[in-house]
Amino acid sequence: MDQFAPHLKNIRVANNNSKVYKDECVFSFDNPESDTGLYVSLTTFLGFGRDHVERYFNKTNHGVFLHIRREKYEVSSPQQGDGPEKKITRLAIGVAGGFDPASSKKFEYEEFYEVVILPNFVAFKWPNDELPDAVKQSVKAIIDLPSASKLAEIEALSGTWDGEVRAVSKYANDLKQLDNGIKISPTGWKCEKCDKTDNLWLNLTDGTILCGRKFYDGSGGNNHAIEHYSTTGYPLAVKLGTITKEGKGDVFSYAEDDMVEDPNLIQHLAHWGINIANMEKTEKSMLELELELNQKTNEWAALQESKGALKPIYGPGFTGLTNMGNSCYLNSVMQMLFIVPDFIGKYYENGNEFFNDAGMEAPEDFNIQMAKLAHGLLSGKYSVPPPPGSPVDADPPGICPQMFKSLIGRGHPEFSTKKQQDAQEYLFHILTLIERHSKNSLNPGDCFKFQVEERFQCGTSKKVKYLTRSELILSLSIPTDAAVNKDEVFAYELKKAEAESQGKHLDPDSLVRPKIKFFSCLESFMQSEVISNFYSSAVKENVTARKTTRLSSFPDYLVIHLKKFMLREDWVPIKLDVSIEMPDLLDISTLRGAGPQPGEELLPELEVQPPAPAMDEGVINQLTDMGFPIEACKRAIFNTGNSGLEAATAWIMEHIADSDFTDPFVQPGLECSKFEPNPEALSTIVAMGFTPEQAKKALKATENNVERAMDWIFSHQDDLDDVKSPAPPTFRDGDGKYKLVGFISHMGTSTMVGHYVVHLLKNGQWIIFNDNKVAISEHPPKDLGYMYLYERM
After folding, report:
1. Which of the residues are catalytic?
2. What is the DSSP letter of 664?
3. Where is coiled-coil annotated (predicted)?
4. pLDDT digits (tens, 9 = 90+) for 499-513
5. 194 is in an annotated binding site
6. Domains with residue ranges and CATH for the chain
């Protein structure tokens, strides 16, 4: 055992506070199941694949490793073919109750250990009583302790949504229940305001039985239960027919606007004479209804191209990503980013520079994890055909970016959880992080950046004002009234209503969606908008103005986001189920803004700031209590003339998808063409200990966005002493002709449920990336996408 002598001084023993990276290599996606296994350092507890362990040794001289190999065996499930098929209760993949591609398979694992000394890879079997005590203690701790990825997952799930776990309602323990003599019979329920006999909700405060909300497809109730809440304020209701003998049931809190747990449900039901021992579940739960609604359309099958036997494709650039429990939004966005040359160049072609510069001991460095993901997706190392004789349904290859997901989501209230997320919001989040970590190098996200030009013309003086802002994504509203097949849609709706009145459902393939030409969406964006209460510096009073929006620059890559998600009039979030005729070749030259024109007279700069518009603080408080951002509440009150809660809420429902919905509110006309820091934002940053000059610099660099300004400050520590104004942003520009190279599609009724897939144009053919399944696309559903990626021609 003399070989250990030079290394014993570096051997450490991990404890409960140590991070042990024994699930995968910190610089690649090699893991214990890889052919060459995983090497875990007995000094730093970092894990390395065979491609990186020698480089780590040469850089650090840490030479002793625990070599882990794992073999997986498929075994017959004792229930396979012997019981009911597993019921799907969630419209999701890879989470409890959702679709599980491997649900019919059962695996067992066997791990093999040995202690290895570099540089000659001298190996010693484990367990081995002849090893030095320090080595034995270190190895045992590595084997026994949970891995770093497991600890990160536990941390992310702590206090957050997990599977179908619901939060306990804050009204459950002290719920008021009236003694009005009402007793509920065990059967024969009916809505007290209409003839509905299903989708009925029992209000636990006063015992009323009323129908639920109407679903987006016309089914469901007539909204009487929620109308009752708006009148009485009684918060909790349970869905009749979902109550079980165990005292469980679907409980909704109108005040908290969510499904909740009522730990006192048995007692609350007993108050109305309901004995749960006599209850049987007779109605579908809300989760089951969600799934059923989506199965009534052919969206799921169309977007996944599941009706054909797609041919798998392997090799560089065709590596799938494992769904880590509702991580399909991440998978789709990252696959799309890594067809862009700027990202390939920085993180793949130059990726080794990040590994070397980080000193091999910074596994949670952002750029390292980006480079690791790039190599995993693009090298082809993890995308190889299955060996001859493999089962037809063998799991396709792919990589599991667990370290990447944990790092990117750390500290974020949504992306740190296992909830489904909005792919558009995630794209913006990842591009923001890339910008933050590209201080001294190329920011590949610049290829998406473009400048928006807003032109205001005073209706009284006819003078004009120009403002510009930076954007990464072009979000477009969908004008449903511009459908070109209204007659066919109307006929289908009549046919569907007739079928449902008979208790039937139409064949999903007969669905007729409203068809809308993409240029109708562009025309909606280009239409001028009338602005009321625009403060004109020319006449020094509020006037009516006309606003037009154009693009001052055309990016190398244009991301188009279609606003498919919205709030219905009854506050139910819905998704527009429409078909958009997206062109393969796109010319947006008509969107080009030209700036001030000859003969135009600019509005003068303000010399004296006018008084702030009056706003009802009571209405602001009511709106913020509903969960709306305060800046959006101010914007709503102003734009409705301070005319009360109802008008303000209606405005919010109509404008909730606006790109500036949460931006600091400034009265139209008072925006400055030269930068002026938002006073509240400035005060917030100064209160954190930064100087006013530093705060102004950060706010200017981030267009008065406090959150982005704080990110900017922490990523520009070396610049804080230099309080000169940052250089204005630069924008790449060129011709306005583009070709479609990718699109992300969403299936489901809201961004919080469902599934994302991405189609990418590679080597002249369309490829579908459905998590770890990568195949040649036969019928890419270009008309059903959510986000589209266009490349300049």
Report:
1. 328, 755
2. P
3. 279-306
4. 878 878 788 778 899
5. yes
6. 2-145 (3.30.40.10), 166-295 (3.30.40.10), 304-447+735-792 (3.90.70.10), 619-665 (1.10.8.10), 679-719 (1.10.8.10)
